[in-house]
What does this fold into?
Amino acid sequence: MPRKKETTRKTVFFIVEGNTDKTALEKIFKTIYKKRDIRFEFTNGDITSDDLIDKINMCEIIYKKVEKYMNENKLKKTDIWKIVQIFDTDGTYIPETAIFKGKSSEFVYSTTGIECKDVMKVKNRNSRKRDKMDYLLSLSDIKGIPFQCYFMSCNLDHALYNQQNLIDEDKRKYADAFYEKFIGIEKYFIDFLKIDVVNGVPDSFPASWRYIKEDSHSLERHTNLHIYFMENPYE
It folds into this structure.
């Protein structure tokens, strides 16, 4: 009896902000989920903070990343199991009383506040980013492909390496070292999240987002990415 042709593995398409985020996570996810086609793509920056990007073209930017991959690999929408976006919260939901005038024109983050020479610049960024994050969070699909959002707080560097305000060169070093730490023990990444990074975030997806929006939690070291593993067991 002829063997049944093997079906295409469904693709999970992860969207992160930068190349170093991809470096830190992609191979870990690929090893854990051997029966899925795991793909990480980055947006070269925070599209939710960019004032030139609105809600409509933000979704288009995300979809174009997926569409390019589909075209290159002759895939259909039905071959994409889900788009998963991992946000940096960047203190977006903090009260304005936690925004302080500082010495630098750049945003300087701590677990209790954001400093910048231009306080209004921070307030405007937070308002813009909040609006777009909340919009994406309200979506169940992008152009017919299931879509879901998770967060790293206050950003991926903080969540994974417990470092804030890293320069690009150090981001690369930390990302390489982080992946290398899990070579051969990739599944322990899930325990690492639960032990070191979740830090009180509820195990319910809706409750986790309510939590990160409260008080100064979006500046503290948190993630709800552990819920992805809870809801999508590996084999």
The chain has eight helices and nine strands. The helical segments are 19-32, 55-72, 119-138, 156-161, 168-181, 188-197, 205-212, 226-231. The chain has one domain: 11-90+121-231. The radius of gyration is 18 Å.
